[in-house]
Each structure stands twice: as C-alpha cells, then as structure tokens.
Amino acid sequence: MIRKIYYHIIDFKEIHPIRFWVLAFVVFVLCVLAIYFLNKLIIKSTSQSKKKDTNKGGVLGFFKNYKILIGVLIGQTVIILALVIVPLTSKKNTYFKMEEDPSISSSMYIFGIDVSHYQGTINWVEMGTSHHPIEYVFIRATMGVNGEDIRFEENWKKAKQHNYIRGAYHYYRPNENSTKQFENYADNVKLIKGDFIPILDIEKESRFGMKNLRTGVLNWLKLAEEEYGVKPMVYTGLTFYEDNLKGHIDDYPLWIAAYSGKHRVDNVDWDFHQFTEKAVVKGIRTTVDANDFNGSPEDLNKLLIN
C-alpha cells in the first residue's frame, strides 16, 4: 500500500509538476505553522496550569485565543481541497461538454487509443458505441522496478472481453535498474496469442548519462525478446527519439509521439503515431491519447503474438 502511494505521488509529480510543488509548499507551510502554534499552546498551557483557575475561558476562550491558527488551518485545508478536487471536477465537466470528433479517426490509418489509471474507470460498453473505429487499445501495465498501474488488470481483462487488440506497455524509469524493471513487467504481463508484442515507454533522460540510459533500454528490450520470443516495440517522443535514440533502436518497431494532428511525422520510419492527447471517446471521462498505425491489417497482425 505504501509503495503504491509512493508511486502515485511520483506519477502526479511527473504529470502535474506545478500543482505538485504548490501542494508541497502549502503542506510545508501548514506543518511549520502547526508546529509553531502548537509549541506556543503547550508553553501557554503549562504556564496557565500553575494558576488556580485552569479552566477559565473554556472552549470559547480557546477559539478566541487561537483564532489566527484556526483560520490558517481552515484556509490551508480549503486550498489543498481546491487544488485536488477542482481539476478532477473540471475533467468530468470537460468530458460532458465535449463531443467526439470522428474526423480525427477517419483516414487510411488503423485507429486506436492508449489508456492508464489517469482515465479512471472506463465504461467499455459505452466505448463500444464510439464513432471512432477503435481497433486496438494500449494499456499501461507497470512502471519502474515495482510500480503497477492500478487499472491494468481491469483494463486488460475488459479490452479482451470487448474484442479489442490489446497491448501492455512498461513506463521506463531511467534512474532505476533495467533488469529489475523488466522483471516487474514480466511478473505482471502474460501475453497470449492476439496480443501486441511487449512495449517499452521511454521518455526521460537518466541522471547517469545517455550512454547508461541506452544500455539500460537495450537490456530491457533484449530481456523482453528472450522472454516472449518476439522483438518488442519502443514508444517515445519525437524530439527524444531524434536527440537520444535514433540509430540505436532501429531494429525495433517504433511508436512515436508527436502531437501534430493529421500532419504526419516525416523522416521517421514509424509504425504507430500518437498524434494527439486530446481525443474524446465515449465511455472515457477524460481526454485520451489517439494513435494511427502505418500499414495494412496484415501488417498490424505481424506485430501480434502468434
């Protein structure tokens, strides 16, 4: 439980860095003020205990004497609740106000989406009524050496039940051991016939240097190929790929993220293109990443477990 809470905090920091540091600062100030005023309260209570009338003032006296402290505590609580609750509420409101745009999935490419616990509980029955021709769903499975997406088991099972081609990806934490990261993925992901090949999501540089990062990535990919008997696929952003990975992972299928809309990525031999993070899909309360496959149904089948 503590481990899951820890990784939720890490994920929140990565997705909402500004909101995270605001919350951290607020909590810090709250703790400092609480300790300061509590210390004053203890000192004052000790001195008052020497007097005969120790109960003078009662509850009303306490509120009168410490109205500033109480006001600060209430204010800080309101701020924290607002920072946490309002974004969640706004996401739901955005969903109800927005409608699907079928034009983003109307093309020569085979369309699909990718999800994680950030999408919350998905209504898979309603998703089946979407105007988008969704053929496949990529699902986040694991993160780092011991992180597990809390929605993976449910999403993995439901995707199969509703006849979507499903893929499981691992979010690579660049400062953690690559072998242990793969073991985490292998322990949680059991691929069967018709599933996508293993997928590695790499987006950030390592504090140990780029050479170390590439070594770790290639080690993860090698271990995945040995375990599942197929070459895995790599997901990464366009800039990160061009600056750090191009020429080092050419033997692996490539899923590239570039939010260029219908304008396709040039000079990159991509298999999947994540072209937006703001697609609206029935049954999903938040916006979602949308992807196109660059090939025919027969080509797509070549990226599945036989």
UniProtKB/TrEMBL annotation:
GO term, biological process aspect, one: carbohydrate catabolic process
TM ranges: 20-38, 68-88
Entry-linked InterPro entries: GH, Glyco_hydro_25, Glyco_hydro_fam25_subgr
Stored SMART domains: Glyco_25
Keyword Hydrolase: yes
Top-rank taxon, per record: Bacteria
Pfam families registered for this protein in UniProt: Glyco_hydro_25 (PF01183)
Name of the protein this chain belongs to: Glycosyl hydrolases family 25
Species whose genome carries this gene: Bizionia paragorgiae
